[in-house]
Structure formats: C-alpha cells, structure tokens
C-alpha cells in the first residue's frame, strides 16, 4: 500500500478561511496564511485551497494569498475556484501552487481538462467533483461550490475526467460537508473502485476513526477535512493573534481571528452537532495503528 496523504482543506472567502454546513452558512475561522503555516508544521502532507465564491462571480482573488503562503510552506498546494482558462491555470501555478483543481469550467468545457493536462502535465491538474446524493446509489455533479445541479452523473463524469488526462480526483459530498457525520463512504468507494487515478476523499469527517473508514472502506488514496482540523487549531490561532488590535480583528481585516466563541458553542453553529476536533498527528497515529501507511 502506498502512503495515504492527509490534506487540510481551506475554504477561502476574501482574505479569510470560512466554514459552513453543506457548502452554505459560512463563518470566519481565521486566515489562510496563518492556518497554512500551522498545518505545515503539524505534519500536513498537502494543502487544498478553495475559493468559495470565485466561480459564482467568475473571478479568483487567491493569487496574493498563494504567493504569500508558498513562501512559508514547503508541501504541495492545490488551488481551486474560478479557474476558467489555460491562462488562469498558468497564473495560479506561477503564483506558487503545485496543482490546480477544476470543477465548474470543466463541466461547461471538458476539453479544458485535456488541454491543461497536456500543457502542464497530469500531475498538475485535479478534477474537483462536488457530489449530491440522488438516491438509489446515484450521485449528481454540482458546480459553483455546491450551488448548482448539472444533471451529470458523478460516476460517468469521474470516468470521463480520467480519459481527459487529469492526475487525480478531489471528491466532495454536498450532503456531508460540515456535518461531522463521517465521509460519504458509498460515494467514495464507488468512484475510487472505478477509476485508475488517486481519489482524495473530502467532506464529513467528525472524528479520527472517520479517516480510517474513508481509506479502508472507501478505498480513498488521500483524506481531506476542514472543520475537524480547524476547530482543533483555532484556539492556537486565537492566541497567536492576541497582540493585534481588537477593533481591527472585528472589522474583518486580513488578521481576523474568526468567531472563537461561535466555535465553542457547537460545531457548525448548531449546538446539537458536535465533532471531536483532531490534530493531524492524532489522525496519523490512529491510521498507523490501523496499519495504514502514512507519512511521518
């Protein structure tokens, strides 16, 4: 078995990391630069940046964040959101990203994946798939960060993107996102067992054991999560920014620490939904205990 990668996902809106429930209802958690540095030092294998409004507004504002982050971390960085052309891919890679993930534009123009894979190499191009459960074992591809249905079957699309030349699939569940209920195992297994490229499983992690199941049952090649990691490290971030002016923090400046009190009240802002926040080290230790190979 190859090493399973552990990849924090950072959903970004403007200058801040945000987190919501089922791709909606965002709350500020902190800043991507600060969390990226912490995750890098904590042992993350890669990072995944997602601009949550780029496709909606047909633009991407992550270039400066990518440039500043790439100077401080030395692990692969994948960037998604608002990628509409070969020129967009080129700019993101030039800014310091190692891979570019494409969803919305690829559904509209599948050949974009083929062109990008040929020009930059399959290892640089990721197919980001946002899946919505339909029932009867079927899933539909959604775009615009979980806002719009497409009528495209997830499994058929996953097989097609392999033929188009992408190097891996980043698979998210619209239904599971932010719930802490565990990964959508049927979805992950369906895709991972049907394609020849790595599948990164995302959405729903609420405890350490969930990561194990995504690999052992879902057959994922990598696991990604947001809240379960964010909420573990949020108080550390809050401590690090205490020296900043409180008025600036609450005005939503780049150094905004996020709503820590909101986090303490309950996962996702719902007092009835809780997770067991875990560090990257906690997750890797459990995976090793379960005989899953991970990087130290």
Your description of this structure?
The chain is α/β, with parallel strands linked by helices and 296 residues long. 38% of the residues lie in helices and 22% in strands. The protein is built from 13 helices and twelve strands. The chain has an eight-stranded parallel β-barrel with strand order 1-4-5-6-7-10-11-12, surrounded by eight helices. Helix 9 (208-216) crosses helix 13.
Q: What features would you highlight for this structure?
A:
296 residues, alpha/beta, TIM Barrel, 8-stranded parallel barrel, 38% helix, 22% strand
Radius of gyration: 18 Å
CATH architecture: Alpha-Beta Barrel
Q: How large is the share of residues in beta strands?
A: 15-25%
Binned, the helix content reads: 25-40%
Question: How do the strands line up in the largest sheet?
Answer: 1-4-5-6-7-10-11-12
Poorly predicted segments: 240-264
Q: What structural class results from the helix and strand content?
A: alpha/beta
Give the oligomeric state of the chains in this entry, treating copies of one chain as homo and distinct chains as hetero: single chain
Arithmetic mean pLDDT = 85
* Shape call: globular
Total domains: 1
Euclidean distance between termini CA atoms: 15 Å
Largest sheet: 8 strands, parallel, barrel
CATH 4th-level superfamily: Aldolase class I
Number of strands: 12
Query: H/E series, N to C?
Result: EEEHEHHEHEHHEEEHEHEHEHHHH
Count, helices: 13
Q: Any idea of the CATH class? A: Alpha Beta
